[in-house]
Amino acid sequence: MSFLILFLLVLAREAMADVSSNPISASDTLTLDGIRDSLIRQENSIVYSLIERARFPLNRQIYLQNNASIPGFSGSLVEFIVRETEAIQAKAGRYENPEENPFFPESLPRPLVNPHKYPKDLHPSGASINMNKAIWEFYFDKFLPLLVADGDDGNYAATAASDLACLQALSRRIHCGKYVAEVKFRDAPKEYETPIRSKERDTLTKLLTFVAVEEMVKKRVEKKAMVFGQEVTLNNTNEGGKHTIDPSLASRLYSEWVIPLTKEVEVEYLLCRLE
Amino acid sequence: MSFLILFLLVLAREAMADVSSNPISASDTLTLDGIRDSLIRQENSIVYSLIERARFPLNRQIYLQNNASIPGFSGSLVEFIVRETEAIQAKAGRYENPEENPFFPESLPRPLVNPHKYPKDLHPSGASINMNKAIWEFYFDKFLPLLVADGDDGNYAATAASDLACLQALSRRIHCGKYVAEVKFRDAPKEYETPIRSKERDTLTKLLTFVAVEEMVKKRVEKKAMVFGQEVTLNNTNEGGKHTIDPSLASRLYSEWVIPLTKEVEVEYLLCRLE
User: Fold this and answer.
1) pTM above the 0.80 mark?
2) How far apart are CA B140 and CA A58, in angstroms?
């Protein structure tokens, strides 16, 4: 009997593993389907992180320069927390994974753990592309004021930590453009060669753009914000009711920033692909 | 026209603020309803954090003692990351908030920011109760092996960071027992006085137990795991379909650990309440 239960538990976990989609680098071969599965799963992480950030008001204090009396540090509190947390995570090997890109890559400490062997799927020149400066700017300057209400509840550390979770989820998603570009290039190298050699960014962007797919992604992200952000009571689920974040904002995030920046990563990647 | 849009945006954000339930300490007066709203909102954070942890396999490496070559440090990698991240967040004032309790309270650095003025709702003796050792033990030794599949994908830093998110969400929820106990005591001080003076833990536990409420909480958490962990596609939402975590595990987490430990916090708090 207990063996049967154990067997059922193993089966159930196997089934769950399908959904908790693996990182790209865990797959043996790089395929567009594999990358798409990962991107779809990452939408969930992005939506959860936005919902969690929206628990707090803006807490403007943490974004002001020189507002914390930190010896030898003149940035904002959020910059301090992101820098220091990235340094710890670097020691644990976070940035050995080619899917992860630090916001403050200068003088990160070396990993203290034996590095995992990640497959070398990316072209070396393109692997180091880092678009985090643009992500940082749109997130704090444009998006955050749309996401949260003004106000101060004193939860500065928790707020900054949840900003970091949003930034990391967005950064991971946007830099997946490197893998998308690599696979698309491998599938049709001849198609890309001419515009790469003549550095025709617009032609490359057009080759990489599928409006119908983008529309589907935007709609799905909006639906996820609706489903994951709904008020759940025992009596009913209420997708149409109150939400912790405005679902259309998730769609706008993708439309205005995530999708364009992913394509920018793809174009930059392709431009180095023949080096 | 643009003024109308701005006005509608403000209205929409006001409506959202209702759902993104504030921390307990943000309320002017401590009420059981206020605490319950916060606990209900915290269920969401717990469920999101479990779903996010379940993206990764166990990654056993990070839980082994002495496995990282960190100068002057002999614990596990996860302990290193939690300790160091807590230290950074302490500098940003996280533990000035009486709702937050560190896992490694020894020698935390002082905050570098002006502390927020949190209302002093708790009795001083009870305010310092810290049940995080018990939370750490059940989470890593009992719960985590049920949540994730065995395996190693090398994402050690991201895995440890998501463990920290789970631990912090659970710790916050369980230590809310202090506020629950404070309000219940204020509502009926005479009822609690005798068992407090004679240190009758069992009587206090009975006074604090409402089986019907506990059943409701367990069912709601299971439902949240089902709703927030479902696979969302554009064609349909599918609560009954695949899930990123087994919904019954969320209920079991509450039943076996979260609810009993919260009551332990409540009892410990009451036992100091007349000091």
Assistant:
1) yes
2) 34
